[in-house]
Fold FixH family protein.
Amino acid sequence: MNTESEQKKSGGFSWNWGNGIALVIILFICTTMGVVGYLISLDFYVVSDNYYEKAEEYQQHIERIQHTSAMDQPVEIMLSDDKQNVTIQFPTDTNSQETDGKIQLYRPNDSSLDHTVKLTLNDQHRQSISTANLMKGKWVIKVSWTIDQKGYYKQKNIFL
């Protein structure tokens, strides 16, 4: 009995499970309010104003890839053994006069190094691009072309 009366006299705080539950509830409420306040402060605007048009463009891109995969002979994108040229080889049944397109040399980590070249096939249905002026590292070769108003697309990663 002495110990209880001594605690009451000294005015000390006694810790019990009720105090612990109250503390946990208060911390939970404060954390929840903090998260809600943070989420309210975030911008929730759409990344692109014209996302419907972009979705349609993406669907067209998917169709271009499907057209390319349905070809009897695939278009080949090859890096020469000495890494001095990228060659795009089209099937021999491709009419080079009716083929219209472009080749994009895309640098993932620095868009200022990107190049775009008009697709111009020679008599062997191929086009070569020199890599001498390209920085070493990863490049993505993106070839998009149209034959008889039908779009095609192929890409390949290369490392110089």
Remarks:
- The two ends are 85 Å apart (CA to CA).
- The longest helix spans residues 17-41.
- The first strand starts at residue 76 and ends at 79.
- Helices lie at 2-10, 17-41, 51-69.
